[in-house]
């Protein structure tokens, strides 16, 4: 497995453990105020990063180069900024962090789109 896929596959379950612990804490306390932060930590951290990791495992040639490293960096920074950003937004402590996280997440997804189009085009040409 290439290094970039491994980064995704190690961080995704880490986000899952954090997100699920957050969920259990909410369920146990009965306080669901921060549910959107829990949901997005799981969905952007566990699910989305695992999907990126799956793609980079299936198509290792797509993981080569700076663009792919930048893509994973943006996705990771997005999760790390967005999850606490949603907590801050819900608690009325400002929306700046959530907005910055959303932009990072979106840029990561756009870059992923470009990487997928390029890599699948190359493999289709080689087939
Ligand atoms: C140990 C595992 C988990 C526990 C105990 C848990 C617990 C909870 C609780 C208590 C809520 C609030 C429900 C409500 O107020 O209606 C919630 C909401 C949610 N959870 Fe989880 N959860 C877990 C795992 C996950 C995972 C793995 C995902 C996604 C892959 C996920 C996605 C969501 C979403 C999207 C919401 C709704 C967020 C919103 O209202 O905006 N959860 N969860
Ligand atoms: C830039 C990225 C994203 C932004 C800015 C964003 C924003 C939001 C907002 C504002 C809400 C409403 C929260 C509330 O009602 O309190 C929401 C809910 C939700 N989002 Fe996202 N989201 C993003 C990415 C995603 C992704 C990638 C997924 C799934 C993989 C997702 C799944 C959900 C789900 C399941 C809900 C809860 C819907 C419900 O409670 O009916 N979001 N999101």
TrEMBL record:
Chain ranges passing through the membrane: 7-28, 40-58, 70-91, 97-117
Keyword Metal-binding in record: no
SUPFAM superfamilies: Cytochrome c oxidase subunit I-like
Protein name: Cytochrome C and Quinol oxidase polypeptide I
Keyword terms: Membrane, Transmembrane, Transmembrane helix
């Amino acid at each position: 497995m290439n290094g970039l896929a491994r980064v995704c596959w190690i961080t995704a379950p880490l986000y899952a453990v954090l997100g699920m612990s957050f969920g259990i804490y909410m369920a146990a306390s009965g306080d669901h105020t921060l549910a959107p932060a829990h949901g997005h930590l799981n969905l952007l951290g566990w699910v989305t990063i695992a999907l990126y990791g799956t793609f980079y495992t299936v198509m290792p040639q797509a993981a080569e180069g700076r663009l792919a490293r930048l893509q994973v960096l943006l996705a990771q920074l997005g999760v790390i900024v967005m999850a606490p950003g949603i907590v801050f937004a819900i608690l009325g402590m400002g929306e700046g962090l959530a907005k910055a996280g959303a932009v990072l997440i979106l840029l990561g997804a756009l870059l992923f789109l470009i990487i997928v189009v390029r890599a699948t085009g190359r493999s289709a040409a080689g087939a």
